[in-house]
Amino acid sequence: MIDGEGTDDRGLPPDAPINPKIDKQFWCSSDVESFRGFEYYRDGICRSFMDLIPEPEAHNEWSFHGSVETMPIGVGRLNRVVATSHLVRRTKAEIANSNEECFYLNYKTRGECQIHQSDHVSTLKSGDVGIFDSAIPFDLEHRRCPELAVSSFMLPRQSIEDRMRGDLPRRPMILSRHPKLGALIRETASTLAQEADRISVAEGARMYDMLLDLVAMALSSNEEADSLPRTNRAHALLLAAKSYVDQNHFRGDMNPDVAAKALGISVRYLHKVFAENDASFAEYVLGRRLEAAASTLATSAFLHLSISEVSRRCAFSDPAYFHRVFKNCFGCTPGDWRSNQHR
Questions:
Q1: What are the CA-CA distances from residue 92 to residues 103, 131, 152, 211 (Å)?
Q2: What is the number of alpha carbons within 13 Å of residue 2 lying toward its C-beta?
Q3: For residue 81, what are the domain limits?
Q4: Is pLDDT of 57 > 60?
């Protein structure tokens, strides 16, 4: 009883709008005179992240262009940056003046960045996801490319510590190269970076928590090891399966065979991983679809869609079945739910 028509390849309706409930701020150097462009960009960087020292290259200071977009997500923030190449520094002085303790998880989408910290250099290339501690001085050198683009997730230190076993890293690490979790971390970071302002606040928080779990697991295990402990492997597979469903539950062909093949495991093991956590694969898929339907019905930008169209976009091909399971889950019909949300 599923139908994935009318959705894009990311599992979202093709006309999914920007979520107006997301509190975003935006700075762009083109909004001011060219000679003030870098100064304006620097102000946006410091407001979005924390006290930093961006330094332009001498030859492009007057032709510099850059933009910074920041928004809350889960217990942290997402900052999207596109800019001409430059250097970003954080010294002991800036650290001493800051009350905020966090790690930054950077998903590089364009260019190359060298992260200098604790006498170590990690090179972040396009498609890489790297992490570093904001409480230890660092340099981010973007000077090897004409333009950079990066999505940076602020991860509160306490949120990582609560999930970890072992010590926090004191040098930058490229987590997308982790032998078991790297691909999943990259996929989750990429999806959040692209869709954080198009999905519901609750959906964004759910995926952000999943990203935190994956990061903590990668940091807790030996990144050079060929395998994870059995309990961690099962947990990682459960997170992988849930992440896959979260990103693809609009698809019409979503079923255990497709998910197991995408995850590289057997269908039997997929069912086992879910069964050990008190929920079946089918129940999880149904729950995500119902949550997506409830969120769509509660969003003003989708008021022009009929109930049947909402159900179809959320992968229910039988309207009667959709009404029945929706009422069982939320205690009212889809129509009543929509009316109650828009009073």
A1: 16, 19, 21, 29
A2: 17
A3: 32-220
A4: yes
Choose one of 220, 254, 287: the last residue of a domain: 220
In the chain, the percentage of residues whose pLDDT exceeds 70 is 86
Q: What is the pTM of this model?
A: 0.69
Residue 136 CB-density burial (10 A; 0-12 exposed, 13-18 middle, 19+ buried): middle
175 and 149 co-located in one domain: yes
**pLDDT averaged over the chain?**
83
Number of domains in the chain: 2
Percent of the chain with pLDDT over 90: 38
**Exposure string (b/e) for 257-273, b if CB count within 10 Å is 16 or more?**
eebbeebebeeeebeeb
CA dihedral 316, 320, 326, 328 (to 10 degrees): -130
- Residue where one domain finishes, among candidates 191, 220, 249: 220
Span 12-56, pLDDT tens digits: 344 445 555 667 888 888 888 877 778 878 787 777 777 887 787
- Residue 94 belongs to some domain of the structure: yes
